[in-house]
């Protein structure tokens, strides 16, 4: 198969779909890889590094999209990239369609085969291709939140861990999955007072086993959520209903009643955000203020630490890329229900239920679409 790796073009996005080591594996399997000029330069990989493992360098994204049977990326295709997608071309990347009607419509129109990293599942109920970036974003959320609390950023002027004789900040993490647990790990390490809310009791048990009495694991009723959010100095939004738009758990009224100078980091913003006042921001301008609360809502947080993130992502995606290339998309997806759960749009049909329902579009199961 011919695999294409374009350079990412989202604001301050320096990750790349494949590092040279991954390219080498594909070439060893007998495939051909086209890489856009300077695709890896943000993390120090030159065209020569890619050529050394057997890739061919193409000057423009247009040439990559025109010649590859499968495009491997990181972020959802931007409008100019969507215009280059071709019928029957495989697109393997993050998509986050639920909050993004224009993208969904363009992917349907393209008639491409669009597989989203974030909805591929595993046998243990996890999301193996989202997990590595959730680890990164969860850990980063506390760094971002600590900065947002600084006075120069309009925060309360509070140190997360306090100092001897002065109380630490209260960090409230909503959603105790991959983002939540990783945020908690860093917040605990910095000496903050940490509460994690989740509505899945098994998740609360796991957090209790991991952190013991260093955190409070709280069942997330509307009541509990309101109490803790109103007491918080920093709120981290990390809830997810896979593939669906995030529920708005923190309301505009909560934000009005939070302490002036408190901060929120809505990591779930890529699925639309779990805080009513959130709107997606970029690394160039990551924060804004609503009712004296500092909001950080960057939709590609791991892009800020692309060296760590690209390798973490590639470690997870590489076996799936090899599988698609070796077997072809049809067999790879039909053989494995968990991989098939990644199929969001197939040759003009929406094949992910929550996306179709959210936009009132016709829905075809991935299995029916592939067997048609
Ligand atoms: N902004 C960014 O750059 C990034 C954003 N993300 C996003 O972060 C979000 C969280 O991802 P993960 O932690 O991997 O998901 P996860 O599935 O591991 O965890 C989500 C948790 O939310 C809980 N939850 C669902 N509904 C809830 C509710 N109503 N109340 C309380 N808890 C609830 C679930 O029980 C689960 O434990 C996703 O939207 C993901 O796409 C991930 C990486 C980077
Ligand atoms: C998951 C995601 O949105 C990211 O890594 O940018
Ligand atoms: Mg207020």
UniProtKB/TrEMBL annotation:
<dbReference type="GO" id="GO:0005886">
    <property type="term" value="C:plasma membrane"/>
</dbReference>
<dbReference type="InterPro" id="IPR007698">
    <property type="entry name" value="AlaDH/PNT_NAD(H)-bd"/>
</dbReference>
<dbReference type="GO" id="GO:0042853">
    <property type="term" value="P:L-alanine catabolic process"/>
</dbReference>
<dbReference type="InterPro" id="IPR036291">
    <property type="entry name" value="NAD(P)-bd_dom_sf"/>
</dbReference>
<dbReference type="GO" id="GO:0000166">
    <property type="term" value="F:nucleotide binding"/>
</dbReference>
<feature type="binding site">
    <location>
        <position position="15"/>
    </location>
    <ligand>
        <name>substrate</name>
    </ligand>
</feature>
<feature type="domain" description="Alanine dehydrogenase/pyridine nucleotide transhydrogenase NAD(H)-binding">
    <location>
        <begin position="149"/>
        <end position="297"/>
    </location>
</feature>
<keyword id="KW-0547">Nucleotide-binding</keyword>
<dbReference type="InterPro" id="IPR007886">
    <property type="entry name" value="AlaDH/PNT_N"/>
</dbReference>
<dbReference type="InterPro" id="IPR008143">
    <property type="entry name" value="Ala_DH/PNT_CS2"/>
</dbReference>
<keyword id="KW-0520">NAD</keyword>
<feature type="binding site">
    <location>
        <begin position="267"/>
        <end position="270"/>
    </location>
    <ligand>
        <name>NAD(+)</name>
    </ligand>
</feature>
<protein>
    <recommendedName>
        <fullName>Alanine dehydrogenase</fullName>
        <ecNumber>1.4.1.1</ecNumber>
    </recommendedName>
</protein>
<feature type="binding site">
    <location>
        <position position="75"/>
    </location>
    <ligand>
        <name>substrate</name>
    </ligand>
</feature>
<feature type="binding site">
    <location>
        <position position="134"/>
    </location>
    <ligand>
        <name>NAD(+)</name>
    </ligand>
</feature>
<feature type="binding site">
    <location>
        <begin position="298"/>
        <end position="301"/>
    </location>
    <ligand>
        <name>NAD(+)</name>
    </ligand>
</feature>
<feature type="binding site">
    <location>
        <position position="198"/>
    </location>
    <ligand>
        <name>NAD(+)</name>
    </ligand>
</feature>
<dbReference type="InterPro" id="IPR008141">
    <property type="entry name" value="Ala_DH"/>
</dbReference>
<feature type="domain" description="Alanine dehydrogenase/pyridine nucleotide transhydrogenase N-terminal">
    <location>
        <begin position="4"/>
        <end position="137"/>
    </location>
</feature>
<feature type="active site" description="Proton donor/acceptor">
    <location>
        <position position="96"/>
    </location>
</feature>
<feature type="active site" description="Proton donor/acceptor">
    <location>
        <position position="270"/>
    </location>
</feature>
<dbReference type="Pfam" id="PF01262">
    <property type="entry name" value="AlaDh_PNT_C"/>
</dbReference>
<dbReference type="Pfam" id="PF05222">
    <property type="entry name" value="AlaDh_PNT_N"/>
</dbReference>
<keyword id="KW-0560">Oxidoreductase</keyword>
<dbReference type="GO" id="GO:0000286">
    <property type="term" value="F:alanine dehydrogenase activity"/>
</dbReference>
<feature type="binding site">
    <location>
        <position position="220"/>
    </location>
    <ligand>
        <name>NAD(+)</name>
    </ligand>
</feature>
<comment type="similarity">
    <text>Belongs to the AlaDH/PNT family.</text>
</comment>
<feature type="binding site">
    <location>
        <begin position="239"/>
        <end position="240"/>
    </location>
    <ligand>
        <name>NAD(+)</name>
    </ligand>
</feature>
């Amino acid at each position: 198969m011919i695999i294409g790796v374009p350079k990412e073009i989202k604001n301050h996005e320096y990750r790349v779909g494949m590092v040279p080591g991954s390219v080498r594996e594909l070439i060893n399997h007998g495939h051909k890889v086209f890489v856009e000029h300077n695709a890896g330069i943000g993390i120090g990989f030159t065209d020569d590094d890619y050529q050394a493992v057997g890739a061919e360098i193409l000057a423009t994204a247009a040439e990559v999209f025109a010649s590859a049977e499968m495009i491997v990326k990181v972020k959802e295709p931007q409008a100019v990239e969507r215009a280059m997608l071709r019928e029957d071309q495989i697109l393997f990347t993050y998509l986050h369609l639920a909050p993004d009607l224009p993208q969904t419509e363009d992917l349907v129109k393209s008639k491409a085969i669009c597989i989203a990293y974030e909805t591929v599942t595993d046998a243990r109920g996890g999301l193996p291709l989202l997990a590595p970036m959730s680890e990164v974003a969860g850990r980063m959320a506390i760094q971002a939140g600590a900065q947002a609390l600084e006075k120069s950023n309009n925060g309360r002027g509070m140190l997360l861990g306090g100092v001897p004789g002065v109380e630490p900040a209260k960090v409230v993490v909503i959603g105790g999955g991959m983002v939540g647990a990783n945020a908690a790990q860093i917040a605990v390490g910095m000496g903050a007072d940490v509460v994690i809310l989740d509505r899945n009791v098994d998740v609360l048990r796991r957090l209790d086993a991991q952190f013991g009495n260093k955190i409070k694991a709280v069942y997330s009723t509307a009541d509990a959520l309101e109490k803790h959010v109103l007491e918080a100095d920093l709120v981290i939004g990390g809830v997810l209903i896979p593939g669906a738009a995030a529920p708005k758990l923190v309301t505009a009224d909560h934000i009005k009643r939070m302490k002036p100078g408190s901060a929120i980091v809505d990591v779930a913003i890529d699925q639309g955000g779990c805080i009513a006042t959130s709107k997606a921001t970029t690394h160039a301008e990551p924060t804004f203020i609503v009712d004296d609360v500092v909001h950080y809502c960057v939709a590609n947080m791991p892009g800020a630490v692309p060296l760590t993130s690209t390798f973490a992502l590639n470690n997870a995606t590489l076996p799936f890329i090899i599988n698609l290339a070796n077997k072809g998309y049809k067999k790879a997806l039909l053989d494995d229900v968990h991989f098939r759960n990644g199929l969001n749009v197939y040759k003009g049909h929406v094949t992910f239920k929550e996306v179709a329902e959210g936009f009132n579009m016709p829905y075809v199961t991935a299995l029916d679409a592939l067997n048609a």
